Amino acid sequence: MSAPVLHVNSIKKVYRRGVIDRQETFRLEADFEIPESRIIGVMGPNGSGKTTLFELITGSNHPTEGSVLCMGRNIHNVRYKERDRLAIHYHQSYQVRHFRKTKPAFMMEPAGRDYPMVHLFDEPQFNTQDGYIGFMLEFFHKLRNEGRLVFLCVHPNERFHLEILEETCEQFIFVQKGALIHAPDYRSLLEHEPARAYLGDLIQ
């Protein structure tokens, strides 16, 4: 039996401040598995932990506990220059996030792949004027049809943002205060009161 495309295995990321009496300021916890290619919509308030989740999945942020397995490989044990062959994080205007190095590359293992299996788009800038949206949606579906996993994180402030998510995404993750709510479809997402409160007038 082949390994799932992505297994976020009991991940915790805890931020603290202070030198002696260190106080916890934020905690993200996630535990889920995506067995095969999907397009997954991700939403949540600013500061809820969405970008931290993406950084943990791509290995540019190190977990306090737990592991992230992409195609069965622990991405935090993969060589830094090769991690984007497993999972790649496009931040806003499609800038690729960089890795924070914690140990020498010679102690790490190769990715074993040439092209990323997991693509994470973090609040892409959709332009409604020149057909750019159609181009990007075709690209998302192309990746999905190639057997790759696509995360599409959008901070919706226009109705068409929700329409893109509803029409494109096959399941959803809502992130709030470091906790994840999983929904198998758009209708199920709207059954969760935190998600409804977040979307507000856009779903009226």
What brief labels describe this structure?
alpha/beta; seven-stranded mixed β-sheet; 32% strand; Rossmann fold; 22% helix; single chain; 5 helices; four-stranded antiparallel β-sheet; globular; 204 residues
Q: What's this entry about, in short?
A:
This protein is α/β, with parallel strands linked by helices and 204 residues long. The protein has helices at 50-58, 132-145, 159-168, 186-189, 193-199, and strands at residues 6-17, 23-34, 39-43, 65-70, 73-74, 87-91, 95-96, 118-122, 149-153, 171-176, 179-183. Helix content is 22%, strand content 32%.
SSE blueprint and pairings:
Layout: E1 6-17, E2 23-34, E3 39-43, H1 50-58, E4 65-70, E5 73-74, E6 87-91, E7 95-96, E8 118-122, H2 132-145, E9 149-153, H3 159-168, E10 171-176, E11 179-183, H4 186-189, H5 193-199
Parallel strand pairs: 3-9, 3-10, 6-8, 8-9
Antiparallel strand pairs: 1-2, 1-4, 4-5, 6-7, 10-11
What do these coordinates show?
The protein is of the alpha/beta class. It has a single domain, classed as P-loop containing nucleotide triphosphate hydrolases (Rossmann fold, 3-Layer(aba) Sandwich), CATH 3.40.50.300. Helix content is 22%, strand content 32%. It is built from five helices and eleven strands; from the N terminus they run βββαβββββαβαββαα. The strands form two sheets. The protein has a seven-stranded mixed beta sheet with strand order 7-6-8-9-3-10-11, with helices on both faces. A four-stranded antiparallel beta sheet has the order 2-1-4-5, covered by helices on one side. β4 and β5 form a beta hairpin. The N and C termini lie far apart (45 Å).
